[in-house]
Write a structure and sequence with these properties.
- The protein is mainly alpha-helical and 96 residues long.
- The chain has 4 helices and no strands.
Amino acid sequence: IAPAQGLFLDMSFFGAYNEKKKPDQPLDWTSQESPAVKRWRRFKEDRVMTHIMTEETKQHNFLRYIYGQEYHFERERYLPLPSEEEVKKPESKVGE
């Protein structure tokens, strides 16, 4: 299961809301300079991204998830762990 830190709603669409409710100030997501988009961007950076980065720094959930996915799907790229016999075997010296 992917960690919540990597999943968040990046954009909302309120076209149907604007048509149905006909608010005095419709939510306009098409213009990057609209007040709604500016508020959304500020909230995303100040709250959402800050929280995601703080949690990731503490818990490393997303990093562990990505590592686990890579290992699961590309195991052959990883060196196998040595057996107990190989671990107990003394290292051979060059020239022996």
